[in-house]
Amino acid sequence: MVSRRALLAGGAVALLAGCGEDDASAPAPASVALAGELRAERAFEAALEGLAPPHRRLGRRLAARAGERAELLLAAGATDEPAAGGGDALELGRAALVAHVGALPSVSDRELAGELVTGAATDVAVLAGALGEPLDDPFPGTP
User: Fold this and answer.
1) Exposure pattern of 10-49 as b/e (b: 16+ CB <10 Å)?
2) Is 69 exposed, middle or buried (0-12, 13-18, 19+ CB in 10 A)?
3) What is the pTM of this model?
């Protein structure tokens, strides 16, 4: 005869063991996540630097902020690669934000992760507002 307590303990062990968990959903290693975030931030920075008037001044200010986030990623261990040139600044900003949100399961430094997500989200919102483009996704990077 099995006691109710033994059944509950067995169920708890099975739950904690993660029965049936798919390995495909496992987070990427932190180094891979950081590298992706850095590439996205560098592309956003380059696109912001290339904004034409009347948004050139705003672009330079936001590019400096993107550069600061890139430096934080470098300090956290990301490897630097040259940024791909060109592209729409707003789309690249959204891509950087998605990269930061997507890296959350891999990042152990929650303070850094929060700073990257909130900084990129703020810059994308400011840029979208200046360009007169509505934000189409209130939670980019999430399913």
Assistant:
1) eeeeeeeeeeeeeeeeeeeebeebbbbbbbbbbbbbbbbb
2) buried
3) 0.74
